Each structure stands twice: as structure tokens, then as C-alpha cells.
Amino acid sequence: MRSKYKLYFYPERFDLNTIFMKNLLIALLFGILGHTAASAQGTVAHIDMEILYTLMPENDQAEIELSRLRQAYQQNFETSYREYQARFLKYEDEAPTLSPAEDAKRKSELELMERNLAQSQQNIEKQIAEKKELLYGPIRLKARELVTKIAEDLGFLYVLDSSKDNGLVMAKGKDLMPEVKRSLGVR
Fold first, then answer.
1. Domains of the chain in sequence order
2. Which end of the chain is more exposed for a tag (fewer CB within 10 A), N or C?
3. Digit-coded pLDDT (tens) for 50-77
4. Residue 63 CB neighbour total at 10 angstroms
5. 113 sits in which H/E element
6. Do 55 and 181 touch, CB atoms closer than 8 A?
7. Cα separation of 118 and 112, whole Å?
């Protein structure tokens, strides 16, 4: 009795033509993969973005503005700190002669000044960080756009950032820095 179902795996299926076709397909697949791997090596470039940021013309102006802001905040903070120190020294000199109520009042004033100084320091750091992002954000964006344009013009598909601590261990591909410098007019 013969089964009405055909077996998927049966000996007649493996004739010479199908084995040849399978081998041809495998060889073609390896050829395509090999070609893709070989051509991908020419499509990767790298650039040190940290150096590029410092080369951008707007970077100098941003540094100057950030430095001015830091100095202004530092002067204001130092003025407040000197005022705190003067009050603290005055309190230490007068502490033995103060009444308990006046002593408690002065201590609380000094503690309030300390808290205000600490909060002021945190606000200064926060405002400087915000200003830094405001100043350097457009510079980073412009640098990225410049690198993208140059990479596209040169036919690269990928550009890796070779800056320190960016995870790139080896950079043997094309370095775009000379082309970017030429574009910026920097030597």
C-alpha cells in the first residue's frame, strides 16, 4: 500500500542539478558577503571631534564669553564669602559677651548665610553649564554638519569619532581632519 502523502525528503530529489545549484548559490552568497566586507573597509573614516570643536572659528568667542561669565560669578561669590567671613569673625569676637538669645540669633544668621553661599555655588555651576551648552551646542552641530558634508562628498558611509575615551580602539580608516581643516581654512 502506497501512502498518499509525498515525502519531503526523498532520494530522487537530490540529483546532480540541484546539488550543483545549491553549491552555486552558496558560492554566490560567500562572494557577495566577501565583496560587501571588502567594500565596507573603504567606506569608514574617522575624525577627532574634540580637536575639531577647538578648531571651529566660533569656539574662541564662546571660550571668551564663558570665561567672562565665570569671572563675574566668581567675583560675586567672593564678595558674598568675604561678607560671611567678616560676620563670622565679628561673631567669634563678640560671642562671649552676647546674651543667649542674641547668640542664637547670630548663629542662625550665619547658618543662613552658609546655606545661601552653598546654594549660590550650585546655582553658579548650573548656570555656567547651561550657558556652556547654549554656546557650544551650535558649534557641535555645525561641526557635525561639516563632517557629514565632507564625508558624503568623499563617499564615506560611516564616520567614527576618534576622540579620547570614545570607545574607538583602532583608527586605520581615512582621517577626515585634513579635509575639514582645509574647509575651515585652518592649517
1. 43-184 (3.30.910)
2. N
3. 999 999 999 999 999 999 999 999 999 9
4. 13
5. helix 100-154
6. yes
7. 10
pLDDT of 42 strictly over 80: no
Cell numbers for 121 = 555655588
pLDDT (0 to 100) of residue 38: 47
| Spatial separation of the C-alpha atoms in residues 116 and 111, rounded to whole Å | 9
> Edge to edge, what strands does the sheet with 158-161 contain?
158-161, 44-47, 174-175
Confirm if 57 and 183 have CB atoms less than 8 A apart: no
Query: What pLDDT, on the 0 to 100 scale, is given for residue 18?
Result: 58
For residue 7, what is the DSSP state? P
The structure's pTM equals 0.62
What cell numbers appear for 10 in the block? 526523498
Cα distance between the two ends of the chain: 88
Q: How far is CA 11 from the centre of its chain?
A: 61
Would you state the pLDDT for residue 44?
83
* pLDDT confidence bin for 136, thresholds 50/70/90: very high
Neighbours of 85 (CB within 10 A): 11
